[in-house]
Write the structure tokens for this entry.
Amino acid sequence: MGELDGRIAIVTGGGRGIGFGIAQRLCQAGARVVIAEFNPDSGHEAVRRLTEQGFEAEFHETDVRKPESVEALAQAVRAHHGRIDILVNNAGLAEIGPTETFALDDWYRQVDVMYNGVFLCMQAVGRVMLEQGKGVILNISSIGGLGAWPMRSAYNSAKAAVISLTENIGCEWARRGVRVVSVAPGVTRTAMLQQMVDEGIATLERYNKRTPMGRVGEVDEIASVVQFLVSDRASYITATTVTVDGGWVAWGNLPL
């Protein structure tokens, strides 16, 4: 028996990276997972991989930037399953560059996906959960939302806004049965990180040296914390952000 047996979970951006790792973890704990993905190929592939492992999963094409798409997701899941127990807002992207020349289209896209999209999903799914009187919303923020990283003004400010949304809405809905929490991952070994390394934008050696634990994180280390936070074991945790970063945020500015 898994601790999430029979629960219905939505994971936005669950087709790859941390999102897929979270979806897999929730499935292993007994949940039925809806992969809400903008990219149909990634969504279908994620479902294929999960069902091959014997898990229950389905795909729903979703653009978190569009209210009608998000509302359609919430209503479709409720109509099919009768409820929504867990929402993980994970959809995101990372584009960096000097602020003075940063393209406005890139700014709007990041803010739309990682801030507006999180709000739209919280609002649409939250209405369902408030009617039920129960539910958990978990937002994926970032250590970038807790500090300054040059050339990441769009990404970091959107992730900081997610932390604020978590606190505000978490307090607003606390007495109505809906918990809202956030996880701020540190640098994590994903395909996106590997692409940055391959393109010469970053080096693992530099990240490892900067992290007090001396290494980057693994996807399952993030996913395992998510599983805990959406479970009944975390029933008294709401309106807060948990960093999973190997000590990155706590570290000062002296060489390790």
In short: The mean pLDDT is 96. The chain is about 45% helix and 15% strand. The beta strands are 8-12, 32-37, 57-61, 86-89, 135-140, 178-185, 240-244. The two ends are 44 Å apart (CA to CA).
